[in-house]
Task: inverse folding
């Protein structure tokens, strides 16, 4: 991009990169073309875009929240579910965004000298240090620049990419000691000591995807009359507030989602010339405690924390429920679709709350604004931090396609069967792991490794089939019959894996050996291990249709029998 194209109108004056008109957000169009577009183009053509495309999944999450803040503010709502339904039916629902962007374009300029987008004008450290872009480009961990094409450092990036990483830094920046900015009262010895990761980094991020970006934006556009989420009358995004200084705001709390989605957890300033961005000053901004933010933050599940309740002497404390990178999203389905709001009438508060964004979609289907068969993708995104939260170790990204009927509050049969189907898989895989353990014991080998390997194989083999089954569940006439078919699929899959384990067990397991038991000792070989496996599988999945023992005459498991005692 030439210097003249970056100048303000008239061809002179300071450099400008106007995010309302300059392409900077990656999108995948419905025809498969991937490109960068401006904010104005994105909203005008949202119905022709399939989804956002970021440098990382966490960047997509951060950008979506920015877009939602713009949409909420531009349409001034939705005020209630009727207002939302009008937006859903109107192909031109985002038309007001164009005038809105024009009104606020002076605060949406990445390079503005007075109030640069998501930055602090004139921000500097006491010694005038400027850090490398490694500080905000999350695919280059500080001090560990392996597996990257930008080794050893990010020396320069374009303005479009810089804008994306600025948004990402406020959402997912790491913790650790940061340079102290002049004017920040928290500075001690030129530094500010750890104040935690960016706000979205503390979440187990959850949002809903439709078939187009327009649908995705609308499905995540929560109405102001939604129960369990607080919206203050003064809720507004950061560009409608006075520009930040180098220090933190005085214990301010978010006024609603527009404020929260643009929360300034960092203070930063890009250093650039006409050829791009070459450095950054990065410090802490407004810290935000996750304690009982479930009435403000809709894009995460929540867990009750007895430890924090005791520490704070409070009756109920909820904290975000983050993602386990070793556990596929479908295995945590219950936390997404079966949570409930806090109990009332003196009843015990819930141990877990499902994401409010899914509470909102539940309301849309329960009140028949969305058809029962409407298909959504529940997307989970999060960062896993390591070494005192000073680096990002992993990024979690997973999707689950499902019909919205699974979220129906007054017809829970589909959701219940979907959750119970996960339990079927968990139980069957546990039985497979037990078989691996028993075979190793029968052969006189160590059992932890084989058990873990067998469980990984079991969940891996069931991952695709469950996702396919879940996506089609809403079309089933009878959810209970659909689950019985799933059980049969689980049995076939796990028995196939069990046959491989038995074949690979070898002669030592076939011959067997004396092993410790609850009472004395037990002779264990591969034949008895197989019998126990089939009995366990029957307990989990019920009796097979044909050819296998029924629950009444299935071989006993070690938990059912008094073991043989061998001298």
Result:
């Amino acid at each position: 991009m030439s210097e003249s194209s970056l100048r303000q109108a008239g061809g002179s004056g300071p450099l400008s990169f106007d995010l309302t008109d300059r392409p900077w957000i990656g999108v995948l169009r419905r025809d498969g073309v991937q490109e960068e577009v401006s904010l104005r183009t994105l909203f005008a053509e949202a119905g022709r875009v399939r989804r956002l495309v970021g440098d990382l999944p966490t960047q997509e999450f951060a950008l979506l929240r920015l877009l939602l803040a713009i949409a909420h503010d531009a349409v001034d709502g939705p005020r209630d579910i009727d207002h939302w339904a009008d937006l859903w039916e109107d192909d031109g629902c985002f038309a007001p965004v164009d005038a809105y962007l024009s009104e606020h374009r002076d605060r949406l300029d990445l390079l503005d000298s007075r109030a640069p987008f998501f930055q602090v004008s004139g921000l500097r450290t006491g010694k005038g240090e400027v850090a490398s872009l490694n500080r905000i480009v999350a695919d280059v961990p500080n001090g560990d620049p392996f597996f990257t094409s930008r080794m050893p450092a990010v020396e320069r990036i374009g303005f479009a990419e810089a804008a994306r990483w600025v948004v990402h830094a406020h959402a997912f920046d790491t913790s650790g000691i940061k340079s102290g900015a002049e004017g920040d009262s928290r500075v001690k010895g030129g530094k500010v000591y750890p104040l935690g990761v960016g706000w979205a980094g503390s979440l187990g991020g959850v949002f809903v995807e439709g078939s187009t970006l327009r649908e995705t934006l609308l499905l995540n556009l929560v109405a102001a009359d939604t129960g369990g989420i607080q919206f203050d009358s003064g809720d507004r995004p950061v560009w409608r507030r006075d520009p930040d200084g180098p220090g933190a705001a005085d214990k301010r709390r978010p006024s609603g989602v527009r404020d929260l989605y643009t929360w300034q957890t960092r203070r930063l300033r890009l250093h650039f010339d006409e050829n791009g961005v070459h450095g950054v000053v990065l410090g802490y901004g407004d810290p935000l405690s996750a304690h009982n933010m479930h009435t403000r933050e809709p894009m995460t599940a929540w867990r009750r924390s007895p430890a924090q309740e005791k520490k704070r002497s409070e009756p109920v404390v909820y904290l975000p429920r983050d993602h386990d990178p070793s556990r596929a999203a479908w295995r945590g389905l219950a936390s997404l679709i079966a949570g409930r709001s806090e109990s009332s009438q003196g009843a015990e508060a819930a141990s877990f709350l499902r994401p409010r964004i899914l509470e909102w979609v539940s309301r849309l289907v329960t009140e028949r604004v969305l058809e029962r068969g409407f298909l959504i993708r529940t997307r989970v995104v999060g960062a896993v931090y390591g070494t005192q939260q000073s680096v990002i170790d992993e990024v979690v990204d997973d999707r689950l396609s499902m019909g919205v009927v699974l979220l129906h509050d007054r017809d829970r049969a589909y959701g219940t069967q979907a959750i119970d189907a996960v339990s079927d898989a968990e139980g069957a895989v546990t039985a497979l792991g037990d078989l691996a353990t028993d075979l190793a014991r029968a052969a006189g080998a160590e059992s932890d490794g084989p058990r873990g390997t067998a469980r990984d194989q079991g969940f891996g083999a069931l991952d695709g089939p469950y996702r396919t089954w879940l996506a089609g569940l809403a079309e089933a006439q009878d959810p209970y019959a659909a689950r019985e078919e799933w059980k049969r699929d689980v049995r076939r899959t796990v028995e196939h894996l069990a046959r491989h384990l038995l074949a690979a067990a070898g002669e030592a397991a076939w011959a067997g050996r004396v092993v410790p038991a609850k009472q004395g000792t037990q002779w264990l070989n591969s034949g008895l291990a197989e019998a126990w496996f089939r009995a366990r599988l029957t307990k989990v999945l019920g009796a097979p249709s044909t050819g296998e023992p029924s629950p009444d005459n299935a071989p006993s498991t070690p938990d059912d029998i008094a073991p043989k005692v061998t001298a």
